[in-house]
Design a protein that fits this description.
Strand order of the largest sheet: 1-2-5-4
Largest sheet: 4 strands, mixed
Shape: globular
Order of helices and strands: HEHEHEEEEEE
Helix content: 25-40%
Number of domains: 1
CATH architecture: 2-Layer Sandwich
Mean pLDDT: 95
Distance between the termini: 35 Å
Strand content: 25-35%
């Protein structure tokens, strides 16, 4: 619990993103690749933008994240998961390490893959040569 409170207190930034749930694989793939192309990061699923813990079904969210990392990221990005229980709610801590296989691209639409890096609390499209 203490670890989660500290993370939430730091707020979203270049190494931390809050997500209530994962509902758009294309969008979360951008976040995943931006962390992999930068210095790594953590996605807390089950936490709203204001830091409130909403909780999630961890199996459903792991499935969505894994699918995004494997099908919408090229090359695929390895994710590490840790479930944190807080007052009968579960938050999924998703860890993405800085990649040794940069650059990673996120699928925007069929045949359109783009590179992203993390700048402050946003995933920003960049030229692949800058990574």
């Amino acid at each position: 619990m203490e670890e989660l409170e500290k993370l939430i207190a730091t707020g979203e930034g270049d190494k931390l993103e809050f997500k209530k749930t994962i509902n758009q694989l294309v969008k979360i793939a951008r976040t995943i690749t931006s962390f992999a192309n930068s210095r790594g990061g953590i996605i807390l699923v089950g936490v709203m933008d204001n830091g409130t813990i909403s909780g999630i079904d961890p199996e459903e969210e792991k499935h969505s994240l894994t699918k995004a990392a494997e099908l919408y990221c090229n090359p695929p990005v390895k994710l590490f998961f840790k479930e944190i229980e807080v007052e009968d709610k579960i938050v999924l801590k998703t860890i993405i390490f800085e990649s040794k296989n940069k650059p990673h691209f996120a699928k925007v639409k069929e045949g359109d893959w783009r590179a992203y890096i993390r700048v402050k609390d946003e995933s920003v499209q960049t030229d692949k040569w800058l990574i």
